[in-house]
Amino acid sequence: MSSNLTLRASVLSFVIFVLFIAAWHIATRQIGSVATMDPEYAKLMGLTATTGKSAMPGPFDVAAKIWEHLKNPFYDRGPNDKGLGIQLAYSIGRVMLGYCLAVCVAIPTGFVIGMSPLMNKALNPFIQLLKPISPLAWMPLALYTIKDSAVSAIFVIFICSLWPMMINTAFGVSAVRKEWLNVARTLEVRPLRKAFTVILPAAAPTILTGMRISIGIAWLVIVAAEMLVGGTGIGYFVWNEWNNLSIVNVIISILVIGLVGMLLDQALARVARLVTYPD
Amino acid sequence: MSDYMNADRFISIEGIARHYPKAGGGQTTIFDDLWFSMNRGEFSCIIGHSGCGKTTVLNILAGLELPDEGVAIVDGKAIEGPSLDRAVIFQSHALLPWRTVLGNVSFAVSSKWPDWSADKVRDQAMRFIEKVGLKGSELKRPSELSGGMKQRVGIARALSIEPKILLMDEPFSALDALTRGTLQDEVRRICLETGQTAFMITHDVDEAIYLADRIILMTNGPGAMVAEVVENPLPRNRGRIDLHKQPDYYALRNHLIDFLVTRSRSFKDEIPPGYEKRHPPVVRPTATTAPNAGLSAA
């Protein structure tokens, strides 16, 4: 039954995909009116005006370009012409760095907040105030204080990944079932051992959910941050290709951004499955 | 106080009280000035209606709660917190779901003996897993076990640390009748074999009759008291199957039921002459004594 469902779902997905590609193809191949004009002037006007071809690339243009990128993802021909692989590597590197720093800060802090009602109450106003700030709003302050655009981007990732992980860790830790804590108490388990053998495993699924939310946000934010700081990265690439009026590359970057975001999320989902316990 | 130095008095509850703040100010006294004791190697049950503070008494014995007044003494020492000398079997089994059966029991063993080698911890854990009949399931997780098997793991975990006292909070109340019966047999067998001192909360009169040497009767809360301590007149080698064929069975059972149905409520208003909170009367209902004869004897 379930395999049948999977099969039917896959067929349906494929049909939707084909319909989408077909619609895209038809929408972009349409030939518009061609104005007769001076050849010198036509050169300035570009293809849209002279041949009626839409500036919006069709699916086959995109596919051809993807193939080109796949053949040579890591070329480097100066600051404004780097392979897609290099750009992605920059972005992923920044996200990983900022995200890992955030993990190192958020999980221990969340632990303390979850364990101590005093810390919870004391830190809550700060967290509530800082959480809703758009990470990009930190950018000017980061640029001014850090004075390095690359590090500023990492800082922005750090600050946006922090809150969901901290809040989820605190919640998971404070919601550990009393009976498990009582088991630890009656067995006279020392605080540090209790933290690692009872509280951490009990809160792990909630913590991982926070980590998953954070990596999603971090990946959203890196694109915007790189558009601002420039230089390298997939966000910068999108903006640069827009300035080059290469819609094909813009579409490809959108696709790749989605793909990488999905992979990051799936990787954490897999880890989450490892630490989830059936009740 | 001299009689409390008695060597037999292994556990002694001395004038403990528990108050809760009332919603509109003031406080509710669940119980106060509660006194009773238990001897070494004895199995005691406490019976009473919900709200009389049985679980609080057990939690105080476990060290999970401290009394507002009074003191609980075990083996000559006042209880100041939880201790590995006192193991608890929780009503909800309270197994750690991310650990296997062996992992759960080993967790307790390595808590008691932190310097033991992994092999030694494993051997000790396996010994008790076998004792409760779970050999072969040691690598399963709690979610793969039935309710009865989970509670067996709870029992193995509690026994594996070789506690001086086993504390049980209605350990079998969530189980079906058949499973409950087998687990009662096993707990009784293990306690008799090892001379384990045990204290158990129950709602089940037959469970108390089968397991307990002494049954502590608590009146309804708030303001609960120990009405009396009932000595079990049934022979020590009693079996669960022929329990009702014992000559004193009905005398004891009627006495307990009578207490739960009427006297737990009315005791407060009709305190028998000579009743002292500090020395609750000890009664031993037998076929030859009339239904409330024990009271006047006390």
Task: Report on this structure.
The complex is a heterodimer of chains A (279) and B (298). Chain A has a domain at 84-275: MetI-like fold (Orthogonal Bundle). Chain A is built from twelve helices and no strands. Chain A is mostly helical and 279 residues long. Helix content of chain A is 79%, strand content 0%. The radius of gyration of chain A is 25 Å and the shape is elongated. In chain A, α4 crosses α12, α7 crosses α8 and α10 runs parallel beside α11 (234-243). Chain B is α/β, with parallel strands linked by helices and 298 residues long. Chain B has helices at residues 54-62, 101-112, 118-131, 147-160, 177-194, 205-211, 249-266, 293-297, and strands at 9-21, 27-39, 43-47, 69-74, 77-78, 86-89, 165-169, 197-202, 214-218, 226-231, 282-283. In chain B, α2 packs across α3 (118-131) and α3 packs across α4. Chain A binds chain B through residues 177, 179-180, 182-183, 185-189, 197-198, 201-202, 204, 275, 277-279, and chain B through 62-64, 81-84, 86-88, 90, 92, 94, 96-98, 107-108, 111-112, 141, 143, 161.
What would you give as the CATH superfamily of the domain at 84-275 in chain A?
Answer: MetI-like
Poorly predicted residue ranges of chain A:
none
Number of strands of chain A: 0
Percent strand of chain B: 15-25%
Quaternary status of these chains?
A: heterodimer
Q: Which chains share the greatest interface?
A: A-B, 19 and 23 residues
Q: Rg of chain B to the nearest angstrom?
A: 20 Å
Terminal CA distance of chain B reads: 20 Å
In terms of DSSP E residues, the strand content of chain A is under 5%
List the helices and strands and how they pair.
The complex is a heterodimer of chains A (279) and B (298).
Chain A: H1 2-29, H2 39-45, H3 47-51, H4 59-71, H5 84-115, H6 117-130, H7 139-146, H8 149-174, H9 178-186, H10 191-229, H11 234-243, H12 247-275
Chain B: E1 9-21, E2 27-39, E3 43-47, H1 54-62, E4 69-74, E5 77-78, E6 86-89, H2 101-112, H3 118-131, H4 147-160, E7 165-169, H5 177-194, E8 197-202, H6 205-211, E9 214-218, E10 226-231, H7 249-266, E11 282-283, H8 293-297
Helix pairs in contact in B: 2-3, 2-4, 3-4
